[in-house]
Amino acid sequence: MSASIKGSHVAIVGGSIAGCATAIALKDAGVAKVTVLERSSSNHLQDRGLGIGLPKPMQELLLNSGYLGKGYKFVQTKERRWFVKDVDGDDSWRGRQAWSQPIPVQLHNWGLLWKELRERVDDYRGGVTVKELAFKEDTGVELKGEDGASVGTFDFVVGADGASSFLHDLLNTNSQPNYSGYVLWRGSYPMDELKCQDHDYFLRNKVWTTVGFENGHGIFYAIPSSADDNGGYLINWAVYTHTPPGLEFTTPTVVRDVPPDAMRFFEETVRDGLPPYFLELVTSSSTALSIHPVFDDSPKSMTHEGSNRILLVGDACATLRPHTASGTTKALKDAMAVGKLCKEKLTWAEVCETYQQERKSEADTRCHARIPSSELRRGIKCRKRNMQNGFRIKLRSKITTSGVMTRTTELAFFISITM
User: Fold this and answer.
1) What confidence tens digit (pLDDT) does each residue in 205-258 have?
2) According to the model, what pLDDT value does residue 231 have?
3) Cα(324)–Cα(401) distance, integer angstroms
């Protein structure tokens, strides 16, 4: 028999953005008690100073719904600029600007966003790793740690434990993430470490940039630093390349100790592909960079149909390619969907059934956000010329009334310079 919603004690396995947002949504829906179980130490996650983008409507929803405080820091942009290397042009230092789009995006520090959400969670337990569970007839779900000891018994469990989710594997025994064949290199560092001229280019112009080069591209923008850094900013960069030599990926585990051969491959790639200004943005970092292998995973089950006592949110239920810039947005929408359903439904069984129907459709759409070659040909035509000068771009697309290129065309361009 399915447990009722009001009066339930819910465990959320995973305490990053998806887990904390879900805890806030459940509390707002009137769930009696919510406990977040996170394997990292309590404050470890706030050190993740990498950048993420949110669309303006989601930003406003978070503020208006009480997920974020009025003093929360982010960077507002108004335009996206696309560059290619142009050694013979008038502006060879920054490269040739190939395109610009009036796209307002709010740019965030992942650690600051997490901290803001974490502060609104009443029962957050760091250093707790969940490895097993057992269904207890009429009493709920018992969660167990690495040593087999009981962590507690709960009426309902939400899996928010990321792309390598224990609960994802439980619900999808035959589903494994597939490696895409390319990786994302990431780094961030204080803006005042950048000694070249125009170090405040992103903030002054309110822009974020994409730089295309053969077999890859880079993204560059500014984000707020942590709240303890006197209101400063970080340079955040992300560069996509093919798989570095000597590395094989079977799981979406981040590589933080980069092997020498892989590092040489990266240095050669950015030296050949990036204009001097953007190359300096990458090489000026005083902190270690990391490699994020890109995986696809759209599982069949987002809820446990047999018990109606488990559902998945965020990366635990679907792994999205980072070029879609929608992983965090999807995680937040998952959390809000759970909260909304808990207000509308009477039992967890009803919540699970509707959640599976509604969120599975969006997860599938975003997981397969890859434009077929026919769409590439219709949406945008990209003819390669001398690779030192990048790409000659011929746009053939419909423009929306706001003057912003359609999402299909934008993705087509994005993919065409990545292939």
Assistant:
1) 999 999 999 889 999 999 998 755 556 899 999 999 999 999 999 888 889 999
2) 65
3) 23
Supply 377's token pair: 């040909």
**DSSP class of 287:** S
Contact call for residues 223 and 54 (beta carbons, < 8 A):
no
CA 291 from centroid of its chain's CA atoms: 14
CA distance 79 to 74: 16
Chain-centre distance for alpha carbon 328: 5
Q: Which of 112, 167, 126 is nearest to 35 (CA)?
A: 126
The position carrying tokens 């967890």 is: 348
Tell me the pLDDT tens digit for each residue of 25-37: 999 999 999 999 9
Question: Quick one: pLDDT at residue 268?
Answer: 95
* R_g (Cα) of the chain, nearest Å: 22
Phi, psi of 288 (to 5 degrees): -70, 140
